[in-house]
Design a protein that fits this description.
Radius of gyration: 24 Å
Oligomer: single chain
Distance between the termini: 37 Å
Structural class: alpha+beta
Strand content: 25-35%
Largest sheet: 7 strands, antiparallel
Helix content: 25-40%
Number of strands: 9
């Protein structure tokens, strides 16, 4: 966030410098208001570009095997351009490349669930998915497995058959 703020100011100063140069070359013919208007528009333009390109830039840096499950688009009053076209502010993904399976529990898969949000650090939670039972369980630090690898005292949550996590992990 801090680096984008610095980049926004650098863009503004850069455009102001270009306007000053153009004003000098034109012999001072540009209106006085041109400098702050051009700098302000450049800073707003960079901010809008940064908001709309965050999702694509972030997804392009994800490792192979990460599948996007859900995206959340945002509209806010202090970003009026978002009412024209909402932008993605957060998303949920699953890292299928790091899925763990147990031969004694073939219908259950443990996968990392990745949550990414604009201006926040990404978080990762291991989740057990029961493909046959259409349920999932978040794995906390105190979770235990029995002698055959089954989860002990897991808080299973029943999900619909078309749940994006269930579809991604079980197909």
């Amino acid at each position: 966030m801090f680096l984008e703020l610095i980049a926004t100011f650098v863009i503004g100063f850069g455009v102001a410098g270009v306007v000053l140069l153009l004003n000098r070359v034109s012999g001072g013919r540009l209106p006085r208001a041109m400098l702050p208007i051009a700098a302000g528009l450049a800073m707003i333009g960079f901010t809008v570009w940064s908001e709309y390109s965050w999702y694509d830039r972030t997804v392009s840096q994800l490792p192979e095997g990460v599948e996007i499950l859900v995206v959340h688009e945002q509209q806010t009053f202090y970003q009026p351009w978002s009412y024209v076209k909402p932008f993605v502010s957060r998303f949920l993904a699953v890292d299928l490349a790091r899925a763990m399976r147990n031969d004694t529990q073939p219908d259950q898969v443990i996968v990392p669930l990745v949550s990414m949000e604009r201006w926040q650090f990404g978080s990762e939670v291991p989740v057990a998915v029961d493909c046959v039972g259409s349920r999932r369980a978040d794995l906390a630090d105190g979770i235990e497995f029995d002698e055959v690898g089954a989860l002990v005292d897991a808080d299973w949550i029943t999900v619909e058959a078309d749940d994006p996590l269930l579809e991604a992990v079980c197909t």
